[in-house]
Amino acid sequence: MHSSNVTLRVLSSADYEAVSAVFKAVFPAKYNLEFHDAWESRNIHLTYGAFTSEEELAGFLLTKQTAANQQQIEFLGVNPNCQKGGIGTILLEMILDYCQKTKSRATLIPVNEHRIIQWYKKHGFKEYGHPRISEYTGDLEQTMIYS
Predict the structure, then answer these.
(1) Which of 51, 65, 72, 144 is the most exposed place for a label (fewest CB within 10 A)?
(2) Domain 3-109 is of which CATH architecture?
(3) Cα 129 from chain centroid?
């Protein structure tokens, strides 16, 4: 599936089951509690879904406002059947465009996987601060900031 074949819209509470299903298909189970907390504390105006013409969720972006001028990307996930078509990039660009317009910063703490970290670096993120231990998983995590 290519990004030109999807419609983007703000996610509502009615979309939780669909988002949860895509999340579980993409992320290891050790992130389930963190995902649930991220959904509950999400910025409801900056949480997007990419939907197919059949109204199936192809990908999602959960954000959280962490400071007056800062949006943190909590989770960005694309259905495995829809990956490599630009859907993740289009979702990421939604929050980056918003941050540019509002002079806000975009931050994230990516899954500690080289491929994921490199994807964010390719899109303009850089490592920020010192790594820390995740309160959810105990993994070493590195904050990244968009520059």
Answers:
(1) 65
(2) 3-Layer(aba) Sandwich (3.40)
(3) 20
Which residues have CB under 8 Å from 133's CB, separation 6+? 139, 140, 141
Q: Which residue reads 């409801």 in tokens? A: 44
Bridge-based pairing of strands 70-78 and 125-127 is: unpaired
Residue 84 zone, left/alpha/beta (φ > 0; ψ -120 to 50; rest): left
Q: Name the region of 103 (left: φ>0; alpha: ψ -120 to 50; beta: rest).
A: left
117-130 pLDDT, tens digit per residue, is: 999 999 999 999 99
Q: Is the pLDDT of residue 111 over 90?
A: no
Structure tokens at 36: 């649930």
| pLDDT over threshold 70, residue 2 | no
Domain assignments of the chain as residue spans, ordered by start: 3-109
* The 70-78 sheet, strands edge to edge: 7-10, 48-51, 57-67, 70-78, 105-108, 144-146, 125-127
